[in-house]
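Example 3.2
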Amino acid sequence: MTRVLTSGWFVVVALAVIFFLHIAASVGGWYAPHDAFFDVHDWRFNIDKLFHFLGGFWIASAFTVVAAARFDGIDFTKPSLLVALMVVAVVLLAGASWELFEFGLDTVFATSGPLRQQVGLADTMGDLFFDLLGGAVFAMLLAAGTRANSRAR
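Structure, written as tokens:
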């Protein structure tokens, strides 16, 4: 499992799947309208959070692939707190950067209504939470997979 999650093809395929799901959600109206955005029983609210979870998972996977190829001193085949913290920190940095990008879009283009990216602080914190959750799940799967591989040897 670890070999799959940290392979370049997984990163590319996962990005393509997330991209096409986002396009389908945008065209199909799967995102919740902002006036009903905080109705957690509305499945359209949850689809946004699902995409943030998948994005956090993808960022963690992409970081692991790039870091394993670039940094000789860090062994991504052994579970460690350092690797988990690095993965989560990069996911949080990417999530915060994305939220700043959305804020910038709203500010520069003075968007309102359904085009508005930033609904409020609660939405931003929820997005960051699900980004973090996706990265944390990846880190746990990575640690579990590397532990299982070390026992099998």
